[in-house]
Amino acid sequence: MSMMETVREFICQCPFLKNGFLNVNYLGPYPTEYVIERVAADEVLKEYSDSGKLKQFVFSFASREWIGKNVEENQKIVQFYENFAGWLDEMSAAGRLPVLGEGKTAQSIGAISAGAMSNLSGDSAKYQIRCRLIYYEGGDNVWQEKN
Hints:
Blueprint: H1 3-11, E1 22-24, E2 33-38, E3 44-47, E4 53-66, H2 71-93, E5 104-111, E6 116-121, E7 124-137, H3 142-146
Parallel strand pairs: 1-2
Antiparallel strand pairs: 2-4, 3-4, 4-7, 5-7, 6-7
């Protein structure tokens, strides 16, 4: 399973997702839809003498939402992204992380930016939050025993 598939499967478990579909690399024009997109970033954070590497998978989680003059409705969108970031933190703290392929072990997952609006189009907008999954790959797993 690819990293993107693994992250998508994990995020589908989030209890805050509304009745929307979580797509990959495509966000449709109608609210409420969700998407995860890979973000260009340095993949290797650290290399170890045992040939293992601490790596990151950076991705954007986004949604298309209705917007308007109703402050309460707009605030619900902001609250959704705060809740989503909190859920990632809770999963990470509890050790309930994505199960990666052989030789890879998830270390943490979390948001690295706040949810923000972009791409306003009529009465809907794209909101997104940047996230990352940190994982260890390869080597003889000495890193896990030390940390």
